[in-house]
Design a protein that fits this description.
Chain A: It is found in: Cytoplasmic vesicle, Phagosome membrane; Early endosome membrane. The structure holds 2 protein chains of 2 kinds. By secondary structure, chain A is α+β, with helices and mostly antiparallel strands. Chain A is built from 29 helices and 29 strands. Classes of the chains: A alpha+beta, B alpha/beta.
Chain lengths: 947, 196
């Protein structure tokens, strides 16, 4: 996850090069400096035959454009370059050391193919170099690299000898502005110098190192704060950490689903922040000074130590820190070194301070210190700068900001230098708006803005003027009439008018003389030709609750600049988290969310989960309706699912309609549960092998399963009874006790019948068959379309009852012959063993072309089956005698009754989902079988066969 | 689908004879409430409850099963996939205790081999109607090497403890105890970069 996008990096590197240079490989690696690893990209660049290794830092991770890469070091692969690699076997990284006379670079990369390739390329490059014939002094080689060397931050460090310029551990702020050579220098990197070893770089680095972690959470803090997509973020610990960010305003209100649970947790926690935090007062010192490019005076104590008690936080802003041309061009500034030193020296002597962060944009610099004792409670330190100068991009004007979270309160400090000149207040307003809208703390996703902080301090040379004639101003100053002056102040008036400029900001009354413009070194207002009107250019404003201003002063004793420094002291309410109460609130929220989640599970009510079907009869469907009510809060999707290893969700005689549906919340769905016993299921129910008992499992998607039990009793019927059993029954089947029925349905029951005993009489053929054939023989001989016209259901059921109960004894002649014909066919089809039993099926097919063999086969059938077969054949032959009247022909009857009497045990068409080719093959096989069945039948229908 | 908002998801299952109080135990644990009216569970229901254990947020998905005998065959199909099984009997009904071995056999046959088990003797608030001495419960649990607790959903005795103990037992043998690789890598990276 950590080493990513190698190809893309090479492409990005390519974009930073001139057309005749080519990046042949780039790799993500870690540079080891002072024992610390930081993310780098190493690239091998070729120009003709000369190679160089380029080390880049990343302004952001992942790098998306070439401007995200900042060149740090350039190492020509020449004769003086030494390269060594080691790959400790127990480690997953390999280390590469590149040494040139000027620079040493130690990088680490994973043991991987790209890394090996990278090493191979360097070796190749060295070989290439040694093969290039060198003429005379090799000093002037690699001229093309010079421009890059100058660009590289290593170069700038060594040449400028400015320890602040070296940017080792926070590459993110090494911003280069398009079209200019302007640089923002993150002076945080000053940690390397001996002077500032007490700063908070070590603390910050514990976050900084997380930044280039992995693609999906490239900036660790950002995930913590805003709930990254995949990462688990609302553990108590991380939430505690993230709470101080008042960016929760974009949290969505609880939606239909509980999907974005951590966001809801965060919102709930933010809402209840007061329950688990206490407001603690922190003293914050703010000071701002436009120093007019001067070096610091001996001591800044008069400005920076304004109270006997040490402030908790120092926020010091400078403008015009460095007016030299170099400050525009180079990232380093000797002035910065001096002022950093001076500020550090002037911190309150009664406390120990650590530097939180400092940031400089040309002449605008912000330094933030905090008392060392608060170290453990500060987090998410970030900074940004916005230039608003010439063309809106130059850094002579603009603003820099530092933000962090202290305990549970987010703080943002801005220092700005807005546009100058008496009449340019619209430009100042615009500068303010630009800084406000363009400042983005990019450690956050989406980047955090100034306005999203709990408390904001805005200090600096805001350059707002007093709209009064110079004489009036000066006379008011003499009288000490500051109030009259401030009333005409451009900023004050806008604040009073609640305009959009500095909306929400407050300012204390500046009970001091205007701080601009003095003749340097004096307390005299501008005596130059320009004769500028004195003004309150230097201001300190704040926004947010719980801020109490204690002092607001200027310090005219400090005379080096044309501005006087301004300072202010505040007591600021910081929300401090109480672990115990936080835990309680957190657990409470968890409970609420669980309840919410449980409430949002699909919920249904079923009006009847126990269905009893009474007296279910053959081919007579019974339906009961079950009402499924969606009593939950979301639509539910239900489906009857298979239980255990079943292939279907219910027994074949059972059916639910619909078996799958979606029910809106608060709506009911009626499900019809139908029990229907037909020829395919009757036999097993008759024999007692199966009972009318089943459990339907109604499954809710993402929810529970409900069971619906179905039970009932089946009215045994001669339909579905075996020939063996039927010929043993003397009376109608309903009069046979169930136990006896089960007994005679057992295989081989016939052989146990003792004919000699009382009642041991057997019918030749089942009397039911005889009754139907007899009816047809009587009434259907001359009827058209016999076996082709469907019968009536009610009549078929009547015939069933007549046969099963013996009432009436004979089928009434009022019934349609077609009903009887259909019942007759149904009867034959329902037989558990067809007229030609299953075991004879294949034999029948194979003997079908041979009369003798067919005859022999019929002879070998069990007696009752043989009798039934011959009986039916005789009846069919009888029908054929009347074919002139009933229109039946032998071909039709052969194929028709062939199928009824000759059935395979397992039908060929079992699965509907069979492939087309398979289906085709089966069809042809089926046709073949049908032909054979008909042929077999033909033997017995064409002639009377004597067996 | 919902985002993962937890470190781990544990599936627990409640089994035992009809009327021993499986649903009540679940209701007590999830909603901290008790309902005296007996409604037989006809099917399989579940509730979720998020707990923190060992610094991890664990989402428990607790499945409540129908205890009626006619559903036993069907309910066994829900055993598979559950990581912990609560086997509940009623201390005021000896029959439900006698069936424990049958339920244990069911677990052996149908549940994952490494499933964590726990035996609960519920309704321990009704000591006057007790038919199963605590010692008998302890004995059968010891015999099968399964943790045992007497609980009361009504009086809220040991309910939380029972579920937490079962979850803890599952957590203890969860490999690496971290299910989300992201987190794992995150920490690795952190340490790699913190160095020195």
């Amino acid at each position: 996850m950590f080493y990513v996008q190698l190809m893309d990096i090479a492409k990005l590197v390519q974009k930073t090069l001139t057309p005749n240079e080519k990046c042949i490989q780039a790799i993500e690696c870690a540079r080891i400096l002072d024992g610390k690893r930081t993310l780098r990209y190493a690239a091998i660049v070729i120009n003709k035959q000369e190679h160089g290794v380029f080390i880049f830092t990343a302004l952001r991770v992942p790098c998306l454009q070439s401007s995200d890469l900042v060149l740090e070091s350039v190492i020509p692969i020449d004769g003086s370059m030494r390269c060594s690699a080691e790959a400790p076997s127990q480690q997953t990284e390999l280390r590469l050391s590149l040494r040139s006379p000027i620079i040493n670079v130690l990088i680490e990369m994973p043991k991987s193919d790209p890394s090996t390739l990278f090493l191979a390329e360097i070796k190749k490059a060295k070989d290439v170099y040694s093969q290039v014939p060198a003429f005379g002094e090799p000093a002037a080689i690699f001229p093309w690299l010079e421009k890059y060397k100058r660009q590289s931050t290593d170069f700038n460090q060594s040449s400028g000898e400015n320890p602040f310029a070296e940017d080792i551990f926070d590459p993110l702020k090494h911003m280069s502005l398009d079209g200019t050579n302007m640089h923002v220098v993150d002076t945080e990197s000053s940690r390397q110098t001996t002077w500032f070893q007490d700063d908070m770089s070590s603390l910050s680095s514990s976050y900084e190192h997380l930044k280039p972690a992995q693609k999906s959470r490239s900036r660790d803090s950002l995930d913590k704060i805003l709930g990254g997509d995949e990462d688990y973020t609302d553990s108590m610990e991380t939430l505690q950490w993230s709470l101080g960010i008042s960016s929760g305003n974009e949290l969505p209100i609880l939606g239909k689903t509980i999907s974005s649970r951590e966001k809801i947790v965060k919102k709930f926690l933010t809402d209840r922040e007061l329950e688990f935090t206490d407001q603690h007062s922190f003293r914050i010192y703010c000071g701002t000074w436009n120093v007019n490019g001067q070096s610091p005076p001996d001591s800044l104590h008069k400005w920076m130590v304004v109270d006997a008690e040490p402030p908790d936080i120092y926020v010091v802003g400078f403008q015009e820190l460095d007016l030299s041309k170099e400050a525009f061009i180079f990232t380093d500034s000797p002035k910065e070194v001096e002022w950093q030193k001076a500020v550090k020296a002037a911190l309150h002597p009664k406390a120990k301070y650590l530097k939180v962060k400092s940031i400089r944009l040309v002449g605008i610099m912000l330094i933030v210190y905090i008392q060392a004792k608060h170290k453990g409670f500060i987090k998410f330190i970030d900074s940004d700068s916005v230039p608003t100068g010439i063309m809106g991009i130059m850094g002579n004007k603009g603003g820099v900001s530092v933000r962090f979270t202290l305990h549970n309160t987010s703080l943002c400090f801005v220092t700005s230098h807005l546009a100058a000149h008496q009449d340019e207040y619209e430009r100042r307003n615009q500068d303010y708006k630009d800084i406000m809208s363009k400042t983005k703390f990019k450690d956050f996703s989406p980047p955090l803005e100034i306005s999203e902080h709990d408390i904001v301090f805005w200090i600096g040379d805001l350059n707002y003027r007093i709209d009064l004639p110079i004489d009036t101003v000066k006379s008011y100053i003499k009288k000490g009439a500051h109030k009259k002056l401030i009333l005409e102040d451009q900023l004050y008036r806008q604040l009073q008018a609640n305009s959009e400029i500095f909306r929400g900001f407050e300012e204390g009354f500046p009970n001091f003389d205007p701080t601009y413009k003095f003749d340097s070194g004096t307390d005299n207002y501008d005596s130059s030709e320009k004769n500028r009107v004195p003004a309150y250019c230097d201001r300190i404003l704040w926004r947010g609750p719980g801020v109490k201003q204690l002092r607001y002063d200027s310090h005219p004793q400090l005379k080096i600049s044309d501005h006087k420094p301004v300072s202010s002291l505040f007591d600021v309410g910081i929300r401090v988290l109480d672990d115990k109460r936080f835990k309680r609130v957190y657990e409470d929220i968890m409970k609420k969310l669980d309840r919410l989640e449980n409430d949002h599970l699909p919920q249904i009510k079923i009006d009847n989960t126990e269905l009893i079907f009474k007296d279910v009869k053959f081919v007579e469907p019974q339906v009961q309706v079950v009402t499924v009510a969606n009593v939950g809060q979301i639509p539910v999707e239900f489906e009857f699912i298979n239980k255990l290893d079943d292939q279907t969700y219910c027994r074949p005689w059972l059916k639910a309609t619909p078996c799958k549906s979606i029910i809106e919340a608060g709506v009911c769905c009626e499900v019809q549960i139908e029990v229907y016993v037909d020829k395919s299921t009757a036999a097993k129910l008759n024999s007692g092998e199966e009972k009318l008992e089943d459990i339907l499992v109604l499954h809710l998607t993402n929810g529970k399963d409900s069971f619906i039990t179905v039970s009932g009793n089946y009215m045994t019927s001669s339909f579905g009874s075996s020939i063996e059993a039927l010929i043993q029954m003397h009376g109608p089947i309903r009069e046979v006790p169930v136990a006896e029925l089960i007994e005679i349905e057992q295989p081989g029951s016939l052989s146990r019948v003792d004919i000699t005993k009382d009642g041991g009489r057997l019918y030749m053929v089942p009397k039911e068959i005889w009754k139907m054939v007899d009816f047809l023989h009587k009434y259907a001989m001359n009827k058209d379309e016999l076996f082709q016209q469907p019968g009536r259901n009610s009549e078929i059921q009547f015939i069933r009852d007549c046969l099963d109960t013996g009432r009436p004894e004979h089928i009434p002649d009022s019934l349609s012959v077609h009903s009887v014909a259909e019942a007759f066919l149904m009867f034959l089809e329902s037989l558990p063993q067809p007229v030609i039993p299953y075991e004879f099926y294949t034999k029948c097919l194979s003997t079908s072309n041979n009369l003798l063999l067919s005859k022999q086969l019929v002879t070998s059938l069990p007696g009752c089956h043989k009798n039934t077969f011959l009986y039916i054949c005789a009846f069919l032959r009888e029908l054929l005698k009347h074919s002139d009247k009933n229109g039946l022909d032998i071909k039709f009857l052969c194929s028709f009754f062939g199928e009824v009497m000759l059935r395979p045990q397992t039908p060929l068409f079992t699965t509907a989902s069979a492939k087309e080719a398979v289906v085709k093959e089966r069809r042809s096989k089926l046709r073949e079988e049908d032909a054979k069945k008909a042929a077999f039948m033909y033997h017995f229908l064409s002639n009377e066969i004597e067996l | 689908m919902a985002k993962k908002t937890y470190d781990l998801l544990f599936k627990l299952l409640l089994i035992g004879d009809s009327g021993v109080g499986k649903t009540c135990l679940l209701f007590r644990f999830s909603d901290d409430a008790f309902n005296t009216t007996f409604i037989s569970t006809i099917g399989i229901d579940f509730k979720i409850k998020t707990v923190e254990l060992g610094g991890k947020k664990i989402k428990l998905q607790i499945w409540d099963t129908a205890g009626q005998e006619r559903f036993h065959t069907i309910t066994t199909s829900y055993y598979r996939g559950s990581m912990g099984i609560m086997l509940v009997y009623d201390i005021t009904n000896i029959k439900t205790f006698d069936n424990i071995s049958k339920w244990l056999r069911n677990i052996d046959e149908h549940a994952n081999e490494d499933v964590e088990k726990m035996i609960l003797g519920n309704k321990c608030d009704m000591d006057d109607k007790r038919q199963v001495p605590t010692a008998r419960g302890e004995a059968i649990a010891r015999e099968h090497n399964i943790p045992f607790l007497e609980t009361s959903a009504k009086a809220n005795i040991n309910v939380e403890k029972a579920f937490m103990n079962l979850a803890q037992a599952i957590l203890n043998k969860t490999p690496g105890r971290v299910s989300e690789p992201n987190i794992n890598i995150g920490t690795q990276d952190t340490s790699a970069r913190r160095c020195c």
